[in-house]
Amino acid sequence: MAEQNVEAKVKKLLKQDKIQLWKAPYTLDGQQPGDEHMQELAERYGVLLRMPGSEIAGTLEVIRVQALRRGQRNQTFRETNMATVELLLPRDCNKDNKSRLFLETRLDSTLLHLSGFFRPFLQFLTWLILQPDSGLRLDQQGVCNHSKMMVLKVSAAGVGPSTSQDGSDATAASQSTSHDHSVQRTHRGFQILSERGKPGIDSLQTTPFLEVADQKGNPLKIPHKEKKALILAMGLHEKGRALMKRKRHDDALCHLLQADLHFSECGSELLGAVDNYGVLQLDIVWCYQALEALSCLDDGRERLRLAEDCFLRCYGEQQQRLLMIKGNTGREEVLFLRLHLLQSLLAFVDGNDHQAQQQLDQVELLYTRLCPDTDKMTQLMVLGFSEREARLGLRACHGDVHEAAMLISNQTQVTCSPGQTKAGLAILAEAGYAARDAATALERADGNVDQAFQVSTLTSRVAAGRDHEAFTFFCRSLSDPAGRQPDAALALTGGDVQLATELLMDNRGAVPSAATPPSEEEPSTSSSSTGRSSPSCELVNEVLEDIPHHEDDYLDLTLEEEMQLINTIKTHLARSLAH
Predict the structure, then answer these.
(1) Which InterPro entries match (predicted)?
(2) What's the mean per-residue pLDDT of the chain?
(3) In contact, 503 and 511? CB cutoff 8 Å
(4) Smaller CB count within 10 Å for the chain: N or C?
């Protein structure tokens, strides 16, 4: 990072002074450096940048050699039509510490010809996704002379083992994560779900976590074609976020870039009504920094601009629109923390130290306000609230424990009247049930304390002992006349009774229709008569595993990764500004 910072500063001085290092007197016949003039330039720039002349001399030579090689490649392309593409290699997929590789190829050839030993996907840095098996030529996919392509080592099942350019085997990561799904498999799963908006097919509205709504929570009425594209984009985005949580940023980036393609199929009016598009841009740039892909500077800067514009449209200039709709802005502020942090990083890499420091100052103010206090978190969790609820509640209420407890409870008590809620909570709390469980039970029972008590008792038995009998009674208490919800919930959670219970509680006693296997009366799409789930059903269940059941999941950042990046930038800035 420090090397890129110095190189950017030197390039700005060269541009300002209109100096061309590949020409005399800085380059002599035979392409040798003009030592006297190079040394004089290094000393002058060293004074301006307050750095040792020897360090500046090394940077100048790197820039000079790069310029000469670029000129040679331009000449080769003009004379032979052989273009040079730059491959940015994965950190763990190259030897000799080489982070980039230059290959010569004809642009009328296909990607399969270019990839050679490479099995991973190749992503063009302007982020046109290259299709290895499409048969399209490289120039038809946007590749030109001097194009940069990032080699992403995809370890998902179905992609096959990835190998580095020298043929060294890299199957370990693939084998250890063979249970994960490839981009194509994820894409197909959400394609099946997106078709549920067509006439005669189950409505998408019966799958609540795939419902498209504005900032007020109102479902958006949009044409089916756009809705399909949006569902695909949102689904791939969620899969990418799930992979980011597992620190598998190569795989995540593939899914995020596919999501970006589908978002581009949606109208600008639609994208302006939801913040998903902005969050996606932020996640893509976060993957860049996690992969140390600093060559993505130009693309990253543009994506951060798109993210900031999206947040301003959705939330308002001073987040006043968000405040009017939700009553607070604390939870969404983590998005701005990441935004300013990445802007600080890119500013530093681009040689703008003061801009980087200004952005970092904003980040540290936000971090101080948003970093959860351990004692306050504990106080809320003792009351029965989850870690996620405690963290988001404290941020929304600016660290006030009492206000946070009230906010979390009120969010769970939507269907209960104030009188029923207060009395019911008191009765259930006296019986020893946690505040969150009591509020949830009252909601499920429409405020009826007796039924809520029954639900709470059964839920406790299920959670404590994974009691199948209690689970069955619990499902009946949630009004399941067809008797299909227990089997469907258990099938979706792999037989885990506790997770099945949570799934039903989160979805008002019903398994989302997209994940419900067909009944005997319903036609099956399976070609088998053995009674097993159809391939389509299995595929849908797979992709739904990574869909969070809570709409604020994308805001629930622990800020641990952010703190690490803050410290890294602070260290580099301190050294740079000390010169």
Answers:
(1) NUB1, UBA, UBA-like_sf
(2) 75
(3) yes
(4) C
What does the block give as tokens for 263?
């978002």
* Residue pLDDT, tens place only, 295-311: 777 789 999 999 999 99
* Count of Cβ atoms closer than 10 Å to residue 413 Cβ: 21
Find out whether 266 and 61 touch, Cβ atoms under 8 Å: no
Exposed, middle or buried by CB within 10 Å (0-12, 13-18, 19+), for 126?
middle
Task: Work out the percent of the chain whose per-residue pLDDT is above 90.
Answer: 33
Report d(CA 547, CA 137) in Å as an integer.
Answer: 36
Tokens of 294: 């600093």
Structure tokens at 121: 């996907």
Residue 285 has pLDDT above 50, yes or no: yes
- Rounded Cα gap, residues 347 and 205, in angstroms: 43
- Please, are residues 300 and 364 in contact by the beta-carbon 8 Å criterion? no
Give the pLDDT of residue 30. Answer: 75
Phi and psi at 151, nearest 5°, equal -90, 115
Interhelix angle 249-263/276-290, rounded to 10 degrees, is 150
Tokens 């392409």, residue located:
31
The reported pLDDT for the residue numbered 158 is 36
Q: What is the pLDDT of residues 363-373, one digit of tens each?
A: 999 999 999 88
Number of residues that make up the chain: 579
Distance, CA of 511 to CA of 506 (rounded, Å): 9
Q: Where is average pLDDT lowest: 91-100, 303-312, 350-359? A: 91-100
Neighbouring-strand partners of residue 163? 169
Single pTM value for the model: 0.73
Q: Among candidates 388, 377, 382, 432, which has minimal Cα distance to 412?
A: 388
Tokens encoding 545: 């595993």
Cα torsion 45, 51, 57, 59 to 10°: value is: -100
Residue 31 has pLDDT above 60, yes or no: yes
Cα–Cα distance for residue pair 91/95, rounded to 1 Å: 9
User: What is the predicted pLDDT for the residue at 45?
Assistant: 95
CB 490, CB 497: distance < 8 Å: yes
Number of other residues whose CB lies within 10 A of the CB of residue 76: 15
- H or E element, residue 6: helix 2-17
Give the CA count within 13 Å in the CB-facing half-sphere of 492. Answer: 29
CA neighbor of 394 nearest in space, from 386, 403, 385: 403
Residues ≥6 apart with Cβ < 8 Å to 110:
135, 136, 137, 138
